[in-house]
Design goal:
alpha/beta, 3 domains, 35% helix, five-stranded parallel β-sheet, four-stranded antiparallel β-sheet, Rossmann fold, disordered C terminus, Dna Ligase, domain 1, 10 helices
Length: 238
């Protein structure tokens, strides 16, 4: 079985390390030095769904797995589905939950999913006014709406830091278009849990269940450790 993993970070390295086995041929694009130890790297512009599709066809892969948000945001899954190639990842529409913090917060509010109180600000003036109102309390979480490579969130301890952050994102364009709109959010503290679910035609399964089913009988792959909990962060803050 040939599997192509799209991405170039530690996430993709971890995926490939978990998949590695004698019955699988692994490819990664564009990959990194770590992925090169367990897969064959290939150059790729992750912002081009057509390039990813062409590579998958060239390699004659059985399955493509998408790691980072960028290719999801530009519709790589949609493109593969149109071409009839197997791929794991959400469509561009579904990926908006990740690619737009404002859209995700409004989705949660609309469907009554519990979430921290928030304000979506389309302009710097609106963002500054919301911060100065103090209605969300302190510290205040300031988030660039779009993808910012994991750097677009600041927990501002006071108004001065919040104002500086808002200006940095919206006036100075620190994150480009990703920071043209911001989300201001109340700060919640406590344990955080990420729960991954794979869905197909409305049927859901946990990541562990789905992957175990998909690779039933493949001895080289184990997903017993797909879920883990750590108290390291809590201890560090004690």
């Amino acid at each position: 079985m040939k599997i192509l993993v799209l991405g170039s970070g530690a996430r993709e390295h971890a995926m490939l390390a978990a998949l590695a086995g004698p019955s699988l041929t692994l490819h990664c694009a564009p990959g990194n030095a770590g992925t090169a130890a367990v897969a064959t790297n290939h150059p790729l512009d992750l912002a081009s769904p057509d390039a990813a599709l062409a590579l998958a066809r060239h390699l004659d892969t059985d399955l493509t797995v998408v790691g980072p948000e960028l290719p999801l945001s530009v519709g790589v899954v949609d493109r593969f589905q149109e071409a009839g190639l197997a791929i794991v990842g959400p469509t561009a529409a579904a990926a908006r939950l990740e690619t737009s913090k404002a859209w995700a917060k409004e989705f949660m509010a609309r469907h009554r999913v519990p979430t921290a109180r928030f304000v979506v600000a389309e302009t710097e003036a609106d963002a500054l006014a919301a911060a100065r109102s103090g209605s969300l309390g302190w510290p205040l979480v300031v988030k660039a709406d779009g993808l910012a490579a994991g750097k677009g969130v600041v927990v501002a301890s006071d108004l001065a830091e919040a104002e500086a952050t808002i200006r940095d994102m919206m006036s100075l364009g620190r994150f480009g278009a990703a920071g043209a709109r911001v989300v201001l959010e109340e700060c919640l503290t406590g344990p955080e849990v990420s729960f991954f679910v794979l869905t197909v035609v409305g049927e859901g399964a946990t990541f562990q269940e789905a992957m175990s089913r998909a690779y039933a009988g493949v001895d080289a792959i184990r997903f017993d450790g797909a879920f883990a909990r750590s108290d390291i962060g809590k201890k560090a803050l004690a």
